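Quick one, C-alpha cells below:
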C-alpha cells in the first residue's frame, strides 16, 4: 500500500512540474555527501549547471568542500529518517552520493545502517515527497571482477558471496535494495558506479587518497601487483549530471577512466612529487600477515584506520579494471587522462598541507 501511494505522489508531482514553469524554477536539487570527495564535486558541477542547491550535512562534518558554493544547508543524517524527510521537501531532484566509505570498520552493522538502510530511507522519503528523478551513487565494488584481468562492465553481475569486506557488502545490498524499489514502486532512480576517483577535495582522505599522500611524501617504497581504474573526480561529477539528463531509470552506468597498475599509479605520483619511485614488489602472501598485525594494533588502540587491511590485500589479488563504454555511448561521457587526475590530486594535497616534501615545490608552488 505504501509503495502504491509513493508511485501516485511521483506521478502527481511530475504533472505539476510539467504544467508550471514558475514552479519548475523554484524546485530544488538535494545532494547528500556534499562535504565529501565525490559529493562535493557533484555539488560544484550542479552549481555550474545552474541548479538551486540544497546539501544534507551532518552536524560534525568538515565543511571545507562547501566553500564558495551557493547552497542551502540542511542538518541531518542518513540514520535519522525525519531529517531525510525535511531534506527532500520541495525537491525536484536528488543526488544521493553520501556513503560510509572505509575498507576496514570495527562495526559492520553501523556501516550497513548508513549505506543500506539510510539509502532506502532516503529514496522512500524522496519518492513520497514527489521527487521526479534520483541519481544514486553506487560503486563498481558491486560488480564481479573478471578472472582473465580484462575490464568488467555493467553486465558483470555478482553475488553477495563475491563481496570482500564490509564496504563492498553494504554497497551491494544497497544497490540491490534500490533496484527492488525501482521495480516494485517504479521510483525513478538512475544508478551510477564510479571507479577509483582522484583529484581535488579529498579532505578525509579516502583509502586511495591516503596511498597518494604516502607516495607523494616518499613513504611508499614497495607495492603489490594489482590495478585500478583511475578517474578524475570532476569527470565522475559530470557523469552524474549526464546520468540525470540522459540516463534510463533502473539502468546502471560505470563512470571510470583509465585502467592502470598500482605500480604505475605510485610511480606517477612519486614522479610528480619529486620522490623516488617504489621498486620493491611484494607478494600477496607476504603482505597478508602484516595486514593482520596492523589491524590488530588498530583494534587495540580503539581508534583510527589501519594503513593496510586484510580485505584490501584480498581485493588486490585481482586487477580491478572496468569499462565505461556504456556511459560513453549512451550518456556522452568522456573522461580525461589518468595523469591529469593524479596531478590535480597531488597538487591539492600539497596546497592543503597533506604533503610537505620540499621537492614538490618546483611543480606546484
Amino acid at each position: 500500500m505504501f509503495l502504491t501511494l509513493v508511485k501516485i505522489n511521483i506521478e502527481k508531482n511530475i504533472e505539476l512540474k510539467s504544467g508550471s514553469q514558475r514552479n519548475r524554477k523554484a524546485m530544488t536539487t538535494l545532494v547528500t555527501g556534499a562535504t565529501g570527495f565525490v559529493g562535493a564535486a557533484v555539488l560544484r558541477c550542479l552549481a555550474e549547471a545552474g541548479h538551486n542547491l540544497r546539501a544534507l550535512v551532518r552536524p560534525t562534518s568538515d565543511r571545507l568542500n562547501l566553500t564558495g558554493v551557493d547552497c542551502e544547508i540542511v542538518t541531518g543524517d542518513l540514520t535519522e529518517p525525519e531529517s531525510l524527510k525535511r531534506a527532500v521537501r520541495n525537491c525536484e531532484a536528488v543526488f544521493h552520493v553520501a556513503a560510509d566509505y572505509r575498507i576496514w570498520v570495527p562495526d559492520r552493522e553501523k556501516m550497513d545502517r548508513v549505506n543500506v538502510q539510510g539509502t532506502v530511507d532516503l529514496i522512500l522519503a524522496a519518492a513520497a515527497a514527489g521527487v521526479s528523478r534520483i541519481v544514486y551513487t553506487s560503486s563498481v565494488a558491486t560488480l564481479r571482477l573478471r578472472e582473465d584481468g580484462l575490464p568488467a562492465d555493467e553486465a558483470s553481475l555478482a553475488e553477495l558471496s563475491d563481496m570482500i569486506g564490509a564496504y563492498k557488502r553494504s554497497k551491494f545490498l544497497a544497490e540491490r535494495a534500490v533496484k527492488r524499489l525501482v521495480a516494485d514502486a517504479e521510483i525513478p532512480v538512475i544508478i551510477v558506479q564510479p571507479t577509483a576517483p582522484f583529484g581535488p577535495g579529498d579532505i578525509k582522505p579516502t583509502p586511495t587518497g591516503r596511498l597518494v599522500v604516502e607516495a607523494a611524501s616518499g613513504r611508499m617504497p614497495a607495492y603489490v601487483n594489482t590495478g585500478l581504474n583511475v578517474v578524475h573526480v570532476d569527470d565522475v561529477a559530470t557523469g552524474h549530471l549526464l546520468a540525470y539528463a540522459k540516463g534510463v531509470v533502473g539502468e546502471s552506468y560505470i563512470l571510470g577512466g583509465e585502467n592502470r597498475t598500482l605500480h604505475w599509479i605510485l610511480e606517477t605520483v612519486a614522479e610528480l612529487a619529486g620522490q623516488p619511485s617504489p621498486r620493491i614488489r611484494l607478494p600477496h602472501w607476504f603482505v597478508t600477515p602484516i595486514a593482520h598485525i596492523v589491524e590488530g594494533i588498530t583494534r587495540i588502540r580503539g581508534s583510527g584506520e589501519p594503513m593496510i587491511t586484510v580485505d584490501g590485500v584480498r581485493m588486490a589479488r585481482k586487477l580491478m579494471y572496468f569499462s565505461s563504454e556504456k556511459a560513453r555511448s549512451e550518456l556522452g561521457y568522456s573522461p580525461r587522462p589518468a595523469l591529469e587526475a593524479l596531478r590535480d590530486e597531488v597538487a591539492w594535497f600539497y596546497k592543503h598541507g597533506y604533503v610537505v616534501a620540499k621537492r614538490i615545490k618546483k611543480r606546484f608552488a
